Amino acid sequence: MIKAEATVNGIISRSAMMKTGKDGKPFTAMTVKVDVTDRNGSGISVEISVGKDGYDTNEAAKLTIGQRVEIVGTMNFKKRTEHLYVNLSAKQITLNPASQTDSVTGDLEFKGTIGKQIDRKTDKNGGNYQIFSGFSTEKVAETFEFTWVRFVRFSNDECKALVPSGKVEIKGELELGCYQEKLNLSCRVNEISEWVKQQIPNMNQNA
Fold first, then answer.
1. Distance CA 44, CA 37 (A)
2. Residue-wise pLDDT tens for the chain (207 aa)?
3. Across 25-166, where does the E strand assignment appear?
4. Which has the closest alpha carbon to 175: 34, 18, 22?
5. Are 13 and 65 in contact (CB under 8 A)?
6. Whole-number Å distance between alpha carbons of 143 and 79
7. Rg (Cα) of the chain, in Å, rounded?
8. Distance between alpha carbon 107 and the CA centroid of its chain, in Å?
9. 3-state DSSP helix/strand/coil percent for the chain, to nearest 5?
10. 166 sits in which H/E element
11. Interval 146-161: pLDDT, tens
12. Cβ atoms of residues 81 and 147 within 8 Å
């Protein structure tokens, strides 16, 4: 599981329209484009699919292609083959925000598995930090998709949960980046703990 409570500042690339959910209720749907850069200054444009409960004709009429918006909501990620899709369930949409700069900020929540390598380093001030990656698994039809996140943790404290292939729950600061023209997820760790999956009760088991 990977999700984030995020704030997105970007440009509408597909105007708002009304759609109907599986529950039969209407919602507002549109797409927002955000430019994401890497450390070298090159970057990619990320299309974020936005949905908001309900449909207001007056509001939708203003949410047109080329308008800058700031959106607060819950962000989810879906990996399909080599592409990472970003969806945002909007709670608040603001037209013409004060900032005119593309950005994505927020608090990431991750439940998954640490990779096989953990790099432990020391900064110039003698502080310890760790760099590692982790993945979340999603079953799609008869296959599995793996969404990776790159983590950095600045701490001198040892963490028993931080071990290769360990199951962890992590909370921290979300960062979107890119590498070789592909979207990457990164996170600066604030909290990390062991993740224990809850077992689904067997309803057929005798009491």
1. 6
2. 899 999 999 999 999 999 998 888 999 999 999 998 876 667 889 999 999 999 999 999 999 999 999 999 999 998 887 788 999 999 999 999 999 999 999 999 999 999 999 999 888 888 889 999 999 988 777 788 888 999 999 988 888 888 999 999 999 999 998 877 788 899 999 999 998 876 555 545 443
3. 26-37, 43-53, 68-80, 83-95, 103-122, 128-140, 143-154
4. 34
5. yes
6. 12
7. 19
8. 9
9. 5, 70, 30
10. none
11. 889 999 999 888 888 8
12. no
Q: And the tokens for 146? A: 């793996």
What is the token pair recorded at 14?
């597909």
Q: Are 56 and 75 in contact (CB under 8 A)?
A: no
pTM for the model stands at: 0.85
Nearest Cα neighbor of 8 from 69, 83, 77, 95 is 69
- 28 residue type, one letter: T
What would the two tokens of residue 41 be? 């200054």
Location of structure tokens 């309900």: 54
Question: What is the C-alpha separation between 160 and 163, in angstroms, rounded?
Answer: 7
Compute the distance between CA of residue 184 and CA of residue 174 in angstroms, rounded to an integer. Answer: 11
**Beta partners for residue 177, in sequence order:** 184
Enter the tokens of residue 108. Answer: 């990431």
